[in-house]
Input
Amino acid sequence: MNEQTTPTESRPTDTRTERGGRREQNKAENRTALLKAARAVFAEMGYGAASVRDIVRRTDLASGTFYNYFKDKDEIFEAVVGELTGILLQRHRQGRAQATSAEEFLHHHYAAYFNFLAEDPELLALARSSFTAVRTLLDKPDVRALAKALNDDIRTAIASGVLPNVDVSYLSASMAGVAFEISMVMVTRDPVDPAAATEFATRLMIGGLHRLPRR
Output
């Protein structure tokens, strides 16, 4: 006797899950498209001249779609900088972790930052046109993560004898300040020379580092 074959049952839960997955994928793709467009617009026009309309025009999205992801131009600019900060953070940590001396620690720190700015033409253009706007984001969580990581790496380097036992907060602030301010000058030069900027910053810091009071 042949067994009766039952028809395949529909699975509404699976269908809903599939639709939900596509929705999430579309949302992620839309956000990525907006961030990519914003980065290009800020690089070409500068933060001050750019508008939300300029950003949306670089995508295939409807104008109202922007506000499903970002409140305004400030918020998407912060997201662009935050995305870049995440990449820079990884480079910093990898470089500083390899240091076996104070000079190497400083050199890796500055080389990661200056090369990061110089190697990507779009990022370089953004840095040239929007550094004042970037400065306003220094206390935002994504950017503060850079400072926290630097503090942690300095403590680790002190514990291992790579750096002298100096004031961590002061040293971290000094290194970050030198990097940012020299980079503002570096990006205005033609040609941009990250190696020279790295050498200058490293020599400047190493010359004074061993004269600092110990803890």
Summary: The first helix runs from residue 12 to 45. The mean pLDDT is 90.
